[in-house]
Amino acid sequence: MNKKFPDSFVWGSATSSYQIEGGWNAAGKGPSIWDVFCMIPGKTQGNDNRNIACDHYHRFREDVALMQSLGLKAYRFSISWSRIMPAGRGDVNQAGIDFYNQLIDALLKAGIEPWITLYHWDLPVALQFEMDGWIGDDISDVFAAYAEVCFRHFGDRVKNWITINEAWVVAILGYGHGVFAPGIKSKDLPYRAGHNLLKAHAKAVDIYRKQYQTVQGGKIGITNNCDWREPLTDSAADVAAAERALEFFLAWFADPVYKGDYPASMKQRLGDRLPSFSEEEKQLLRGSSDFFGLNHYTTMYAADATHGAEGGSVYGNGGLSEDQDVSLSVSPDWEMTDMQWAIVPWGCCKLLEWIAARYDNPLIYITENGCAFDQTPIDGQVDDRDRIAFFEGYLAAVHEAIGLGVDMKGYFIWSLLDNFEWASGYSKKFGITHVEEGSLNRIPKASALWYRDVIRKNGL
Ligand code: PNW
Asked: 335 an active-site residue?
């Protein structure tokens, strides 16, 4: 990989609180919906939970040293809401604040820029009981109040904020297919949850901009996930189906943030099932992201399925397919990760171009990209050439997008540590080789060393 990226390009890696921290009931932390979801037999592979996970809560200093040895310039992590506000609102747990202060200080000392995600899915369970989680009418105000606590305590040192990680996953997997916490299966609730997630984002951004941004001088945005959807054939029907699939995936959340409202295709197809924004809410949403955060993993073919949709994947990557009338499929020629996500770097470049065209060339950060492979350690090392090939392919695609005029600003590898993969637990089937909780992440990987070289070659 000899491609040169812009000097200011941000090279990082990402994690999330529930997936790595452990310390699930340490020092006044309240329970989250994921703590409880994992207690229900059958909800995660092997009934795994994150009670220890990578034990980052106790070993964060080692992990920061690991990041420093890799030459990482940026580290994206999330705050466990119930660690700093055990009941989700009201009392603040000083021990939780102290933990994140220590982490932030250690990062800055190591020359690593902290990027904070405020919500990466571990909602305080009290808010699920008391206000129905993301479908409750008041949740957006409660989220904004929590965000304010974070800006107040950490914003003097933290200059990069992401409000919500992957609203699509929260809505579709949490409230549609029910495979993620809180485990609700519904055809209508995903659209309500999505609506409140968007309002929560906008309100938090409003508080940051009015009370903190001028003084603290940071940036704030939202991160959405999207696969690429390639038309199966060049028929007009399939081309329209692929566009529709992207609108139901990404534009669902990005159109309100960039244009102030949902895409026309969604409004038309969903009718009353899609809530609507007031004029005031539209105004609050429009322009509410300083950058475009994108998590991208894979590509699928999309075909018109007006006569009955089929397809999707283990995770239901299609969303609620029947609302879109789109059938998804993969090519037998594509290689797969252990998540059964196809490796298609050109899909990444096409998606970046699609975003640049639709949203007037925003600054884009890939806030997650990566792959799961089953790796057996040999002599205490992991020779993960599949992962290196994956990253070479996707980084070349990002480089190509830059050449085509896309304003790419940074790239974060998912993930820094072998972590708890939600409903997939630590299972080998999905590529996370679980030897002993909290230990595997310390095994040196070829890909990590390779990434270090990429960072170095870019002169950083
Ligand atoms: C993302 N899908 O999850 C999350 O941000 C991470 O926490 C997670 O570990 C990572 O990707 C790998 O899975 C996703 O169905 C989960 O399209 C599901 C989907 C996408 C992203």
From this structure: no
Tell me the backbone φ, ψ of residue 381, rounded to 5 degrees.
-135, 160
Range 147-167 burial, b when 16+ CB lie within 10 A, else e: bbbbbebbbeebebbbbbbbb
pLDDT at 284 over 60: yes
31 C-beta neighbours (distance < 10 Å), count: 18
Separation of 342 CA from ligand 1 center, angstroms? 14
Catalytic residue among 230, 243, 247, 368: 368
Q: How far is the CA of 225 from the centre of ligand 1 (A)?
A: 8
Q: Give the pLDDT of residue 61.
A: 96
Question: pLDDT at position 262, please?
Answer: 98
Nearest to 79 by CA among 154, 157, 166: 154
pLDDT tens, position by position, 134-181: 999 999 999 999 999 999 999 999 999 999 999 999 999 999 999 999
Ligand 1: residue whose CA is nearest its atom 7: 16
Q: Whose CA is nearest to atom 13 of ligand 1?
A: 421
The string of pLDDT tens digits covering residues 417-450 is 888 889 888 754 433 343 344 455 667 788 988 9
Dig out the tokens for 267 from the structure: 């409004």
Please identify, by atom number, the ligand 1 atom nearest to the C-alpha of residue 121: 7
Could you tell me the domains of the chain?
Answer: 10-457 (3.20.20.80)
Q: How far is the CA of 156 from the centre of ligand 1 (A)?
A: 30
Pairing of strands 299-304, 326-329: antiparallel
Q: Assign 317 to helix, strand or coil.
A: coil
Which residues, judged by CB distance below 6 Å to any ligand atom, belong to the binding site of ligand 1? 16, 19, 165-166, 169, 225, 295, 297, 315, 317, 368, 414, 421
What DSSP string runs through 257-315? HHHSS--HHHHHHHGGGS----HHHHHHHTT--SSEEEE---EEEEEE-TT------TT
Average pLDDT over the chain reads 92
- How far apart, in whole angstroms, are the C-alpha atoms of residue 35 and residue 51? 8
- Cα-to-centroid distance, 422 and ligand 1 (Å): 9
Q: Record the tokens describing residue 89, joined without a space.
A: 């609102």
166 given a catalytic annotation: yes
